[in-house]
UniProtKB/TrEMBL annotation:
Domain GGDEF: 539-673
Annotated protein name in UniProt: EAL domain-containing protein
Coiled-coil regions listed: 477-504
Sorted UniProt keywords: Coiled coil
Pfam families, per the entry: EAL, GAF, GAF_2, GGDEF
Top-level lineage group: Bacteria
Xref: InterPro entries: Biofilm_reg_signaling (IPR052155), EAL_dom (IPR001633), EAL_sf (IPR035919), GAF (IPR003018), GAF-like_dom_sf (IPR029016), GGDEF_dom (IPR000160), Nucleotide_cyclase (IPR029787), Rev_trsase/Diguanyl_cyclase (IPR043128)
Domain EAL: 682-939
Lineage of the organism: Bacteria, Pseudomonadati, Pseudomonadota, Betaproteobacteria, Neisseriales
Organism name: Chromobacterium phragmitis
The keyword Coiled coil is annotated on this UniProt entry: yes
PROSITE patterns found in the cross-reference section: EAL, GGDEF
Length: 946
């Protein structure tokens, strides 16, 4: 078999050789070999009278051969590859020759199949590559057709595609040998409805279809489809799908009767090819869509770009105009003369318009005269004022509208009226201020290349619109110049007068008018300067704060004139204690401050402070009277470690002075680290006191009895506050009352104590311990007088505890009366109205001004313990107590002497006629539960007391 295949070129040659072998063997008169390929039969070779032998088709169809004729099928596997037919007798080698021939035919069939497969594969690949090579449908489709033709007889081949929104069908490629009117590529056909094409029908089903001519006719009738103009013998359609398996169209192949029928292999191959065609078309269509989109976006972008460019140009022009506007405004403000303004304007104009020659004409209606405040021209000389004539300027003035003349229009023949060298182009616009026509702004050109346009007119009008007002302003300004010059002279004269006044004002603003000393303002500045110098390594300094004691009393009792005198005297006395370079100021009221330079140690400060204090020990003679007004002093030494700003020094000097006051006035305090700590501690104490007032039981009322001196009978109690502090233990009022006063908590504390005392009194009365002759004293701070509800509240408490009001005594100190004379008088009046009694506390220590006793109605007077204390030692104190007692008797006041500690004091006071006595000698203050009522009753027997 191998040898046959090698030596034989074709099946014909093989058949020929086979017949030669058979002829040589003898017996056969005629013979022929038939082979089948693609469904048709072909005679490969013959000998003798072979035409009379039946053909392959007849033999394989099983037709009976004529007599004397024999046939042998050449079979390879199941398929009949050919036939051998002969007349005569078969030689012995027939079997072997037939087998050889069969083998050869089989080999040939396989080879043909292989070649077809290779072609098909190559074609598919090319179809796939088509999309890349031809991005346009018009070029791709003819090539596709050629490729299809390579695969099979595809002369009649067309492609149908759905449009993008799947509404219609068109045929971008249509090859048909017979069809007289193939559809136009741009023509669209319906996809649905009556008389649709076969391709549309196929797309509706979405499956491949192979139809014969008869079947087509039946289908068109049944489904009312459009009948093809030329009915084909075979019609084969395959749907085209894209990669996403969506239908995009169909590929169709037709055969007419004169063409070979469709084999099943062709059908398979066509369907297979259609898949590749679908992908290729989809890629090209997608590409086309993309390109269309890109083109669309590009044109959109170009449109936007053009708009943007136009906008930018408009904005630029607007900006340019804006800029010109600013510069005109600036020009009109900075130009000192009209001429300067106009020449500046000309320069500006030159940046936008070809304005080498420029004229400004102004029309004076009153004189009917045109003047030319500005004229810059290459040829024309300066223009003289003239009566209106027939010039171009006059035309603009007359019409009130711009005039543009170019060489082609009205310019010709203009020279005559203008005089001089004729311009080639002229542009003039009216100048308005508001609605008043002021004149004309004109430019002209002698250059044939420079022709003014409407655009230039626009610019000129714009400028003209904005210089009208500026022009008016500059003109007015010029007139003002002279007026200013006159004024300036007068201003110079006045200035020197004013300087003197200012100096006085400056002095006044920094000095106190009464003492002529620097004031607080000046002091603050000096202090800050001293501090800055010190911080920069300059000399150290001290701040001294001085406050006069009892100044208010002097003012109130001796009058303001005396007060002024005292302040003046005080300033002089302080000054006398200082070195000439120390800085003394009156801060206000009775407060003075000193900056003492070159102070390095506390001791140096003390020397001066002491000197100041002692300077005030001498009385001052005021209105013929000797008045003692002592001073309280506080001193702070500048210190970089503890201070960050100058004001804090003054604050601490003030605080130190306040400490002096608290310690009984007249003296000095050096602000120290301890004071700073105390300050912090006092802040903490204030917070704690606030809490104590809100809780029950921390603030405890103590009661100290006082007795009738003559009988020793219990006369009453004074209520004194104690603070049972959870950490600090029992705190005495001296430690926290100043804080309560300063923070304003004192009014709450007093209310607390009044309420507690009233409750206690009610309890005692309920127990029958206190009869109505017992007095209960409660201390009341002056701060309460500011409280308008105080009296009402006390009345309400008295009613609440059902107390006889006369049992309650409120103790008030003299200082309270000095602080708030009017409020105190009103409150005391009201308290009297309630039936409550009033006691003047600490009498003798304060101002002891007798006027108070007259002015306010007191019921009881309490002699201060300092006098009682000195009774045994100082004869002077005996005299004072005696005087107080006489006074009380005269005013009909009861008297309580405080601080009785010894029997001798008791005896002396009793002997002098003091009504009541209070002090440790009888009992120390104690809480209610600790009172020994039995012992209180025994004061009756004086002998028993010890
Ligand atoms: P004050 O009104 O002069 O009260 C008398 C002070 O003398 C009390 O001091 C008392 O304990 C003390 N004392 C009594 N007998 C003697 C004695 O024989 N010798 C000495 N050396 N002292 C004696 P205390 O309780 O420390 O109160 C001090 C000041 O606090 C009171 O002086 C009063 O002004 C004020 N105070 C006390 N409680 C209250 C209160 O509830 N409200 C107000 N606003 N002030 C109060
Ligand atoms: Ca008291
Ligand atoms: Ca007292």
């Amino acid at each position: 078999m191998k040898s046959v295949a090698e030596y034989l070129d074709s099946p014909e040659q093989a058949a020929d050789r086979a017949l030669c072998l058979l002829r040589d063997a003898g017996g056969m008169s005629a013979a022929a070999v038939w082979a089948q390929s693609g469904g048709s039969w072909r005679r490969l070779a013959c000998m003798g009278d072979a035409d009379a032998l039946p053909d392959g088709a007849a033999l394989s169809a099983g037709k009976r051969p004529p007599a004397g004729v024999s046939g042998l099928a050449l079979r390879g596997g199941d398929a009949t590859l050919g036939w051998l037919s002969w007349r005569g007798t078969a030689p012995a080698c027939l079997e072997a020759v037939a087998a050889l021939l069969t083998g050869y035919l089989r080999y040939e069939a396989l080879r043909a199949e292989q070649a077809a497969a290779r072609t098909a594969n190559e074609t598919m690949l090319e179809i796939s590559l088509l999309a890349g090579e031809c991005p346009v449908l018009d070029r791709l489709l003819p090539r596709l057709h050629r490729l299809m033709q390579r695969l099979m007889d595809a002369d009649n081949f067309y492609i149908a595609l759905r449009d993008e929104d799947c509404a219609a069908l068109h045929f971008p490629f249509y090859a048909d040998r017979r069809d007289p009117a193939p559809p136009d590529p741009d023509q669209v056909f319906p996809l649905a409805g009556d008389q649709v094409s076969l391709a549309a029908w196929l797309l509706r089903g979405g499956a491949p279809m192979v139809l014969t001519g008869e079947r087509i006719e039946a289908l068109c009738a049944q489904e009312s489809l459009a009948r093809p103009a030329q009915l084909p013998a075979f019609w084969m359609g395959a749907p085209l799908r894209n990669a996403a398996d969506e239908l995009i169209g169909a590929a169709v192949l037709q055969r007419y009767e004169d063409q070979p029928p469709l084999t099943s292999a062709e059908q398979q191959l066509f369907m297979f090819a259609a898949r590749h065609v679908g992908f290729a078309l989809d890629r090209v269509l997608y590409h086309g869509r993309l390109e269309r989109q890109v083109a669309l976006r590009t044109s959109e972008l170009e449109g936007a770009n053009a708009r943007l460019r136009a906008e930018v140009a408009i904005r630029k022009r607007a900006e340019q105009f804006q800029d010109v506007l600013f510069r005109i405004a600036e020009l009109s403000n900075t130009s000192l003369s009209l001429e300067a303004f106009l020449s500046g304007l000309h320069r500006l104009l030159g940046e936008m318009v070809a304005a080498r020659n420029c004229v400004v004409a102004l029309y004076d209606m009153g004189r009917d005269l045109i003047s030319f405040p500005y004229c810059s021209d290459e040829y024309a000389p300066a223009l003289k004022p003239r009566k209106p004539g027939k010039g171009l300027i006059e035309q603009v003035l007359h019409s009130g509208r711009p005039l543009l003349l170019d060489p082609y229009g009205g310019m010709r023949g203009m020279a005559a009226t203008q005089g001089g060298m004729p311009p080639k182009s002229w542009l003039g616009v009216p100048l308005y201020c508001d609605h008043e026509l002021l004149g004309v702004l004109a430019v002209q050109s002698y250059d044939a290349d420079v022709v003014y346009t409407f655009r230039d007119q626009e610019v000129l009008e714009f400028v003209a619109n904005h210089i009208g007002a500026a022009l008016a302003r500059v003109r007015a300004l010029e007139g003002l110049q002279q007026a200013y010059a006159d004024l300036e002279q007068r201003v110079r004269e006045r200035t020197s007068e004013l300087d003197a006044v200012n100096a006085q004002l400056e002095f006044d603003s920094l000095h106190d008018p009464l003492t002529k000393l620097p004031n607080r303002n000046y002091f603050s500045k000096a202090l800050r300067r001293a501090w800055d110098a010190y911080v920069d390594g300059g000399e150290r300094f001290a701040v001294v704060f001085i406050d006069l004691d009892r100044f208010k009393l002097v003012n109130d009792t001796l009058g303001h004139l005396a007060g002024d005198h005292l302040l003046f005297e005080a300033g002089a006395r302080i000054r006398s204690c200082l070195r000439h370079y120390d800085f003394l100021a009156r801060l206000g009221g009775d407060e003075f401050a000193v900056l003492m330079f070159g102070m390095d140690a506390v001791e140096e400060c003390e020397v001066i402070a002491r000197r100041i204090v002692s300077e005030f020990e001498r009385p001052v003679v005021l209105a013929g009277r000797e008045v003692f007004s002592t001073a309280s002093v506080g001193v702070v030494l500048a210190d970089r470690e503890h201070y960050h700003k100058a004001d804090d020094l003054l604050r601490d000097a003030d605080h130190a002075m306040y400490c002096t006051k608290q310690q009984g006035r007249q003296g000095y305090t050096l602000f120290s680290h301890q004071l700073r700590i105390d300050q912090a501690d006092q802040l903490a104490l204030e917070t704690e006191l606030r809490r104590a007032l809100e809780e029950e039981g921390q603030l405890v009322p103590y009661y100290q009895p006082f007795v009738a001196a003559a009988s020793g009978e219990l006369a009453g109690f004074e209520t004194l506050v104690r603070w049972q502090h959870p950490q600090r233990g029992l705190v005495s009022p001296a430690a926290f009352l100043p804080i309560a006063e300063e923070s304003g908590l004192i009014t709450r504390l007093d209310r607390y104590m009044i309420n507690a005392a009233c409750a206690q009194l009610q309890a005692w009365r309920a127990e029958g311990l206190a009869g109505e002759d017992i007095a209960l004293h409660i201390n009341l701070s002056s701060a309460n007088f500011r409280d308008p509800d105080l009296v009402g509240w006390i009345g309400e408490r008295i009613a609440h505890y059902r107390l006889p009001p006369a049992m309650l005594h409120l103790e008030i100190t003299e200082s309270a009366l000095i602080d708030q004379p009017q409020a105190a008088a009103t409150a005391m009046q009201a308290l009297h109205g309630l039936g409550v009694r009033l006691a003047l506390d600490d009498f003798g220590t304060g101002y002891s001004a007798l006027s108070y006793l007259h002015r306010y109605r007191f019921d009881v007077l309490k002699i201060d313990q300092s006098f009682v204390f000195d009774l045994d030692r100082k004869q002077e104190s005996v005299a004072i107590v005696r005087a107080i007692l006489a006074l009380a008797r005269a005013l009909d006041l009861e008297v309580v002497a405080e601080g009785v500690e010894t029997a001798s004091q008791r005896d002396k006071l009793t002997e002098m006629g003091c009504g009541m006595l209070q002090g440790y000698y009888f009992a120390a203050p104690a809480p209610a539960w600790a009172l020994d009522w039995d012992k209180l009753a025994r004061f009756k027997e004086p002998g028993d007391v010890a």
